[in-house]
Amino acid sequence: MASAGQLHMLYTCPFCWKVRGLLEHLDIPHERVQVNPMRQRKTLPSAPEWTKVPVWVDAEEKIHIDSTPIMKQIDAEHNEGKLWAADDEERRDKWMDWVDLHLSKATIPILYGSLGSALKTTTRVSKLEKFGFISKRLYAWAGFPIMWGIIARKRVKKDGRTPKKLWHDLLTEFTNEFNGKQFFGGDSPNLIDLAAFGYVRSISPYPQFSQIKDHESGMKWYKAVESTLKV
Ligand SMILES: N[C@@H](CCC(=O)N[C@@H](CS)C(=O)NCC(=O)O)C(=O)O
Q1: Residue 66 Cβ contacting ligand 1 at under 6 Å
Q2: Is the CB–ligand 1 distance for residue 194 below 6 Å?
Q3: Were 76 and a residue from 12, 81, 127, 152 both cysteine, which residue would form a disulfide, CB within 3.0 to 4.6 Å?
Q4: What value does the mean pLDDT of the chain take?
Q5: How many angstroms from the chain centroid is the CA of residue 104?
Q6: Helical packing angle, 14-25 and 191-201, nearest 10°
Q7: Which of 15, 34, 112 to mutate to test the pocket of ligand 1 (most atoms within 8 A of CB)?
Q8: Whole-number pLDDT of residue 1
């Protein structure tokens, strides 16, 4: 089958993991373009109006931006919108907002919330992304004090919980919403499950993922979603 589109992405970006998971769940053939994080403002097909990843360019060369709208678009075009369809649209919309608000914000504290984890994360990011020779080193050593000092520490302090406790609380809140079913979507994952799964999976390349692995119902759900992917 011909490629359904091109995903312009960063390997470590949680929003890109959301779209990747959906493409793998639906088994949609596509091309991945890993952008250089230092050059995305110039090289993304959506630039200069939109300089963030992910960007999805469909088979007709139409450009789609912003991860949740991209997911809805792919589901509509390739899956008759079945993953977004819901009996209770109010519940669906409320929880998509919840996932995008809370899970996206929880990634920074666990990855950069202490000096040790910030260093581990930035070294890993510099290996996983396609930086240039100099910017790779600059990022690994200058990137971590910036992330740690400014954003992450402030967030951890304001929340008052350890990043691990924050993740466990969020996973408990989310899985409690399943009403005894295996997924938020019921007997199979829907777009909310896949969006949430993308955020959790974006932590998986890092050693800090072990803190999330301790959450029983969260991991049961995570593995169940993972088993639906065609990778
Ligand atoms: N709301 C956007 C957020 C995307 C986003 O913030 N991506 C980051 C990488 S994780 C980015 O490209 N930042 C570069 C910039 O803000 O210029 C989405 O869900 O797609």
Answers
A1: yes
A2: no
A3: 81
A4: 95
A5: 7
A6: 130
A7: 15
A8: 63
Q: How far is the CA of 149 from the centre of ligand 1 (A)?
A: 20
Distance from the alpha carbon of residue 53 to the mean position of ligand 1, in angstroms: 5
- pLDDT, tens digit, 9 for 90 and up, residues 29-52: 999 999 999 899 999 999 999 999
- Give residue 29 CA to ligand 1 midpoint distance, Å: 24
Residue at 207: amino acid letter: P
Average pLDDT over residues 144-169: 90
Whether the bond into 29 is cis, omega within 30 of 0: no
Q: Is the pTM of this model over 0.85?
A: yes
C-alpha 136 to ligand 1 mean position (Å): 19
HEC assignment per residue over the chain: CCCCEEEEECCCCHHHHHHHHHHHHCCCCCEEEECCCCCHHHHCCCCCCCCCCCEEEECCCCEEECHHHHHHHHHHHHHCCCCCCCCCHHHHHHHHHHHHHHHHHHHHHHHHCCHHHHHHHHHHHHHHCCCCHHHHHHHHHHHHHHHHHHHHHHHHHHHCCCHHHHHHHHHHHHHHCCCCCCECCECCCCHHHHHHHHHHHCCCCCCCHHHHHCCHHHHHHHHHHHCCCCC
Q: Is 95 in the pocket of ligand 1 (CB under 6 A)?
A: no
Residue nearest to atom 13 of ligand 1 (CA): 52
Domains of the chain and any CATH numbers? 5-79 (3.40.30.10), 89-226 (1.20.1050.10)
Is 53 touching ligand 1 by the criterion CB < 6 Å?
yes
